[in-house]
Amino acid sequence: MAKLADAPDLGSGGVTRRSSSLLARTQLPCSEASEQGSFGHIHDNSYLFYVSHTTTLETQILTLDGCKREVKITLAASELEPHYEKAYREAQPEIQIQGFRKGKVPIHLIKKNFGKTIEANAAEDIANEVFQGILQEQDLRPVGQPTLRDIQRNSDGSIIFSIAYEVLPEFELQNYRNIEIEKLIYPVTEEDIEREIERLTMERASLDDAEQISDEMHFVTVRLNPIDSATGMTLIGGKAEEIRVFLKNEPTGSELKTSLLNLKVGDTFRYMVPNNEKDGNQSSVPMQASVQEIKRVVPAELTNAFVEELTGGQITSTEELRQDFEKQITSARERSINEAMDNQLVQKILEAHDFEPPQTLISQVVASMLQEDVERLPDKKLPKNFDVRRYAESRTPIARNTAKWMIIRERIIEAENLEITDDDINKHVEELAASLNMGETNFEYLRSAIAGDENLQSRLMHEKVMETLRGYSVITEKEFDPTAPENVELADEMA
């Protein structure tokens, strides 16, 4: 049992997003061979797909379930001999027997004393070498990493190698033009810009001492002491805790917010603290709350001087800042709107194609998902006792669609003769340089730094594919209502 050499790369491409949508998972080389191979179950309902005879070499390619294939290669004793001779020579430098120095043992003595062991150890290398020749000769294109399933040694000195692998499915590329999709219309309003201005000034707000909580623009430190439910008095020896509350962030009408308004330092009130039970039910725990400290939140004053200092002189007036916010919000919404259209396109194209992607590809997408999730963890390590099998099961539906889309996408690239040009690279570098405020003098440096970035090539190709598909689509514009329940998640992304 052994893994064989890497299979040719299918190609990749896509965008990265925070969500677990389909398009978030198309930026990985899914057909690259894994560093670890294992032998899958080979079903018995196979049939002969191809047989070739080249002198003493016989090759049979069997079609199994779906994308699974198995090739049986028969090598006669005479054809194995050159491979064995090569193995003897490679082993010779490490062999030492009585009467000969290490590395000086004659080949005929190596054959006599170690021949069977060397030949057995060489079998996997022979299988790999011969299989690679067959790949080129018959233009076979495995997906992922082929694996050596069985080695059968016959009495006449011949060997039959059984090698399992998967291929891309055969399918007819369905029409991907004139697909009907919706485009959301979500213009930027003054309210949107004001919300950004408020966020900016609040981030740089000052905290001043205050005697009374006159409005919601206050930070309040509250001490909570447990109450004896039998007597209604503060529980002696009970563990007190302090919480810090910004009233503006509290929901309108909340008990805590209502109770705190107009209080002063030292004032007390009874507060029912929400408590989540182990069975999922929610209860309340009575507490004696006392105001310990009050701080008034004073937002930074929005002036030209404030803006200039904040931006390091890049923006010098409040009006320019508003224009910059409008530009940023518009750009962010355009990206989200395009992604929403792209998801519609991909979903409809997937529905139009009925085939199952190779399991190898699906497994590699799942592995990539797991790696991405691990990278997001603070220590970049899986939690103890993490159930990888359950994780894989939960991600497989998305991974299956992602693998299927990657295969279809490659066919679209081929049909449209799409390629990444120097102009595409230069445009990306110019946009990147502008976003980093880098001058033209750094343009060539930046270009050379990313020239060999395969992930960048993949992203640019993905963008070109989706731009092409959007260009072919039939678009109906629809006003976007951010308050509608079905739009809450997307509205948060575009906020």
- Widest β-sheet, arrangement of strands: 1-5-6-4-3-2
**Radius of gyration computed on alpha carbons:** 34 Å
Total strands: 13
Q: How do the helices and strands follow one another from N- to C-terminus?
A: EEEEHHEEEHEEEHEEHHHHHHHEH
What is the gist of this entry?
By secondary structure, the chain is of the alpha+beta class. The chain is built from twelve helices and 13 strands.
Secondary-structure map with pairings?
Elements (H helix, E strand, L loop, with lengths): L1 E2 L43 E8 L2 E7 L4 E8 L1 H15 L15 H32 L3 E12 L5 E9 L12 E6 L4 H14 L2 E4 L8 E9 L14 E6 L8 H6 L7 E9 L5 E17 L5 H7 L7 H34 L7 H18 L11 H29 L5 H14 L7 H8 L3 H19 L1 E6 L8 H7 L1
Parallel strand pairs: 7-13
Antiparallel strand pairs: 1-5, 2-3, 3-4, 4-6, 5-6, 8-12, 9-10, 9-12, 11-12
Key descriptive features of the protein:
12 helices; 3 domains; disordered N terminus; alpha+beta; Trigger factor, domain 2; Alpha-Beta Plaits; Chitinase A, domain 3
Please explain how this structure is put together.
Mean pLDDT is 84; it is low at 1-56. The chain has three domains: 39-167, Trigger factor ribosome-binding domain (Alpha-Beta Plaits), CATH 3.30.70.1050; 180-189 and 305-494, Orthogonal Bundle (Trigger factor, domain 2); 206-298, Transcription elongation factor, GreA/GreB, C-terminal domain (Chitinase A, domain 3), CATH 3.10.50.30. The protein is elongated, with a radius of gyration of 34 Å. The two termini are 54 Å apart. The strands form three sheets. A six-stranded antiparallel β-sheet has the order 1-5-6-4-3-2, with helices on both faces. Strands 8, 9, 10, 11 and 12 form a five-stranded antiparallel β-sheet that branches. The chain has twelve helices and 13 strands. With 495 residues, it is of the alpha+beta class.
